[in-house]
Design goal:
Distance between the termini: 53 Å
Number of strands: 11
Helix content: 25-40%
Strand content: 15-25%
Strand order of the largest sheet: 8-9-6-5-4-7-10
Amino acid sequence: MPPGVQAKGPHHNAVHVQARGPHHNGGATLGLDTPVQFLTGVGPARAQAFGALGVQTVGDLIEHFPFRYELTPKSVPIGALRLGEKATIIGAITGVRSGGPGRAVVAHVVDATGRIRVRWFNAPYMEQRLGRGQTVRVSGTVEMYRDEAQFVNPRLEFIDPDRDPFEHDMDAFEPVYPAGAGLTSRQIAALIRRALAQVGDALPEFLPDTVRRARQLPPRATAIQRYHRPTQADDVQIARRRLAYDEFLILQLAVQLRRQFRKQHASA
């Protein structure tokens, strides 16, 4: 799916089934039907905010799907940056300073091909976080300032100096969630990752393996994981197809049960 394209699909229409083998969270049993308040990092105040978004349980949270994705591209050399394009670079910080209009914090990042200015406005705390020699991954839109390339208020990731900085260097599709009521998309994303880590292996499977293979559908748990964290462009479409099939199957079963019920009462 291209970045920024709406990801229409199931949100809260899927049927919730109690997961088998619930996990334990600080002594409390955590399952799909557990009130979202008891997921670590939520609590009463955030639970109320989630309620305004239609999320009451951990299962609801897992089925609170992104409505679009933002592409964070694989890194390119600084010397290959193009004005106006969204890009990612990996390099080392050579200096940090603050001051000037908007109390900007400015760092310079270099690699073997060049140097770029990285600027944050109204973020004085960044001066304490940044240090000379740190290896960073920076993503943003390339601008120009006094004949020098720069990022303004970009996304920043610190890379462990003992780790190969290019080990996981690839395009990333960042989910953007329906948010509000004091909850940001990034906060929601972090809590969904936590929920999936704790109960993701207990997500129920509705389809026999023979049916899934015949229709080339992934396992339900895999589809939900890919919907939240796609690793390639077609992951979301595959996930949507699987979840839509589940909804269709449940609808058909409901229709059959209703017909059977009417038939039984008509003959009584």
